[in-house]
Each structure stands twice: as structure tokens, then as C-alpha cells.
Write a structure and sequence with these properties.
175 residues; 6 helices; globular
């Protein structure tokens, strides 16, 4: 769901979504989700004790940084409607891919504890993430110009919220 929310935000932020941009974002998100799950599985219990101590801080920092940036950019654009915002650059996609897939790493680790097969779940996670990313981007693109800036601010707030939720859950604040 966090990938879907980020994809909707990317669709909102862009002036117009085309299949190439949607495919690029969906490929990054799908690949990161599938690979992080698989890597989590491969490294198993030995790696778990290292990543558990700080994975939530990584996700929190990345998502909050991008969310705050979106809030600031959205606030700056309130007076100028429909300027194209490039959230499809490689650095942004890299950080979003990592930030939204940290939990997939943890799920892969948990699958290693029960000795489950990692290939089919990894492929399924990648495909489903790819599909919901494209759907989210085109859904975000349907919002009209006058709602884009406010939606970008809201989207940034959602990213900060997701990052905060991940941090609070890992620190034991939410059951």
C-alpha cells in the first residue's frame, strides 16, 4: 500500500503521465520489492539481528525527507499551476524504491525462518507491485490541475506519515 500511495503521489506531481514514465516507476518499485524480499530471505536469520536495529530508521529518514521535500515544493507551486515536476529522476526513484521496500526485506527474513520457498513469492510481489504502481500513477494523473499542488502537499504528508508509522511500529509503539 505504501508503493501505491507513492505512485499516486508521483502521478499527481507529474504534469502528464505516459506509459514510459509509469513503466519506469513501476519497474523500480516492483524490482526493489521483489529483490528486497529475496535478499531478506537469502540472508536469513544471521542478517536479521543487524538490519532490525536500524531498518526502521532508514525507511523513516528516506520517506520523511522525500515527503518534506514534496510539501515544500507543493507549497511553492500553489501560485503557479501545472508546472511539470520531475519525480522520475534516478536518485529520487532509488530512494523511494529503498524506502518503500525495507519492509519487504523484513518479510523475506521472516520467510527464511519458516524455510518457505522464496522464488514464487518474490516474483509475485514484484508483479503485483508493478501493477499497483502503474494503476496508482494513472489514478494520480486523473486529478485536475487545480488539485495538483494541494495533492502534492497531501502526498508529502502521507509519505511522512508512512515513515513515521514504520518507525513507531518498529520501536514498539503500535501493536
Amino acid at each position: 500500500m505504501d508503493v501505491f500511495a507513492v505512485s499516486v503521489v508521483a502521478g499527481i506531481a507529474a504534469q502528464k503521465i505516459n506509459i514510459k514514465d509509469a513503466g519506469k516507476v513501476a519497474s523500480v518499485f516492483g524490482s526493489f520489492q521483489a529483490l528486497m524480499f529475496f535478499f531478506g530471505f537469502v540472508f536469513g536469520m544471521n542478517f536479521k539481528k543487524y538490519i532490525e536495529s536500524f531498518d526502521h530508521w532508514i525507511a523513516f529518514t528516506i520517506l520523511c525527507a522525500i515527503g518534506v521535500r514534496m510539501i515544500i515544493e507543493g507549497a511553492r507551486r500553489l501560485e503557479s499551476c501545472c508546472k511539470k515536476i520531475d519525480y522520475f529522476n534516478p536518485a529520487t526513484l532509488l530512494f523511494l524504491g529503498i524506502g518503500t521496500s525495507i519492509d519487504a526485506l523484513a518479510v523475506g527474513l521472516s520467510f527464511s525462518f519458516i524455510s518457505a520457498n522464496s522464488y514464487m513469492p518474490s516474483i509475485t510481489i514484484g508483479i503485483v507491485t508493478f501493477i499497483i504502481s502503474i494503476v496508482g500513477m494513472f489514478l494520480g494523473d486523473k486529478l485536475s490541475c487545480r488539485f495538483r499542488q494541494k495533492s502534492e502537499i497531501l502526498g508529502g504528508m502521507i509519505l511522512v506519515g508512512i515513515g513515521t508509522k514504520i518507525l513507531v511500529e518498529h520501536l514498539g509503539g503500535l501493536a
